[in-house]
Amino acid sequence: MNGFKVPSDLAQIPVVWRYELLKYLRSWRLIAAVVISFVVLALIFFLPPAFGMPYSGTDDFRVKASEMYSLGEPTPFLNFSSVTVIGRTGSVISELVVTVNGTTYSADNWTLVKMSEASQMFPIVGSLNLDGSHLVFFKDNMTGKVVNLSYHYRITAETFEGLVLNFASILIALCATFFAADSIAGEYYNRTGYLIFPNPMKRETLFAGKFSASMTAGILVIGLFYVGMAGLSYVAAGGVDDDLWKSFLFGLEYLLAASAIGYLVSVLLKGTTGAIVLTFLLLFLILPIVDGVSMYAKVKIPESLTFSGNVMIYILQDPYPVDAAVEYYGSSFSMFYPEPVASAIVMFAYAAIAIAISLVMFKRKQLAG
Amino acid sequence: MIEIQNLTKTFGPIKAVDNLSLKVSKGETVGFLGPNGAGKTTTIKIMTNLISATSGRAFLNGVDVLTRPKAALSSVGAVVETPEFYPYLTPLETLAYVGSIRGMHSKDIKVRSNDVLQQVKLEQWRSTRIGKFSKGMKQRLAIAQALLHEPEILILDEPTSGLDPRGMVEVREILRSLQQQHYTIFMSSHLLNEVQEICDSAALIDHGRLLVYDSIDKLKTLVKVVKLEVTVVGTASDELLNQIRQLPQVRAVERVGENVFLVTFEGVVDDRANLLQGVQSFGAKVSGFSPVGLPLELMYMDLVKESR
Q1: What are phi and psi of B188, to 5 degrees?
Q2: From CA B156, how far away is CA B162, in angstroms rounded?
Q3: pLDDT tens-digit profile of A202-258?
Q4: pLDDT (tens digit, 9 = 90+) per residue, B165-192?
Q5: Least C-beta-crowded within 10 Å: which of A99, B151, B153, B191?
Q6: What was the ipTM of the complex prediction?
Q7: Which residues in chain B have their CB less than 8 angstroms from residue A365's CB?
Q8: How far apart, in Å, are the Cα atoms of A298 and each of A267, A334, A340?
Q9: Cα separation of B229 and B263, whole Å?
């Protein structure tokens, strides 16, 4: 007869983790999630240039007369007479050459200013809706003259990563659906519980092992996505945004909360298909609809998980965006942005509450029938 | 070793297990019998921490499985219903998984895995993913995982379910060899001959209540009703059968063939001799007179009929 000592709860968790992770490593779900994330990265990287919107290049164009604004006589406070806007947003402009009536205009007589800096210098500029643009100020009045601008542009890391990160929240919801939604329900529906439950192991231990494996699979996918994004950002923008690590941490927190919701659904439902579909609908449809309606109804709902999850996109933006009213096709609605600290608290609360309820229910859930 | 005290389980208005108490001593093999819906699997599920009890207690090695399941199940190997396995694992990996949970070292797992897979004749499939296995192969693997850590107690729910006749014989041989090694075995079964062959004792339940629990030998003596197959020389006339029906202790007479009929009879061995004399007294030349059916089966049918 045996003389084996049953390991402690803590020591059993890595055992469950290892074999649960093996499930994902040998399943199409992990491969599919990784493939999807790489396909998305490739599409975002290659499609805009293919459609004539390269991330870097040279612009050479004549400023339209209507886009040259007179500033009046120079004053000690504003030493320029005219200004025009370079409409290429989210890019770094360099090597600007100005020609006036076919002659190169001396660099001493103009200055290139980012919109964000200009709005600080000249408050009146801030009232114009020219976010992310550049302004060229001229000492001479250029209205009525033929002004040509030639410059090199390159997308900023913030813009490129912001573009890519729009998909990150979808990928995280996908990970929660793939790796969490049927994790517990499967033990009942597939009858594998008959094998694993009669072992000397607490349900909490099994839950912890499974949850950590789901998180590991999710982190693997999200980590690869961020690494891929950073690599492409180096190629497209010449670097990564300083706040990218914050975005990654928020992404992991969102993954934690979304997975916890997946586990809660998994504990509540008996069937695996139902659990997967409900988790998918919650994270892809129901909560995002609530977020969308809240903007139209002009009611901010910071308690929404998907709304809070978007902090991983906005955290890259400098300065951090603030809520604003927007007119669109004659309708007015509100653009709400999640507060970073509040979002962190909301996501943590979702994770903690969902895990606590799931644990209690899993302990009580019976393998009857 | 195993002690169930006043165990009750209700599902809404249905009492699946009703104040059940029984005790299995160390080294004993006990068959757990009952018709479908009698509460056998529910009792086993409570004992293996798959479901909770409404009231009562269930001790495994002196530890209450309802309050301390981890400690209670440490020395238990169980097969409940026909479990499903993780299809992405091989038998060796499955055994390594449950062995690690049970605290076995990797070296012991390796040695024991080879032993038990050989025992259940799955050694050639040891590295094949279980997703491709038949129900019978899964049942064998279920038995293998239950034996892996050489538990003191084996709880088996229909251990030969899903196996072909050859597989059934092999599993019975395994159980008999475990019995000789003094494992404590508690097994439910529908197959009365299986229980009669393997077990020292049997507990019979119906409607969640214990009807009888005793050694197989003693249970055989409880058999009150027997079926006797009588063969006569020539044709057994209807008149003869009617005359036999009038004999004391005869419950029924049923024609099987031209010269063969079955007599359902309530009585002990001496009474049977009187019955034979009675049949012969009607002028029948009896060429065959023997009981049919297993004693345990007869006892089972009798007690279950009474309880309903």
Answers
A1: -90, 150
A2: 14
A3: 999 999 999 999 999 999 999 999 999 999 999 999 999 999 999 999 999 999 999
A4: 888 888 888 888 888 888 999 999 877 8
A5: A99
A6: 0.83
A7: none
A8: 35, 5, 20
A9: 6
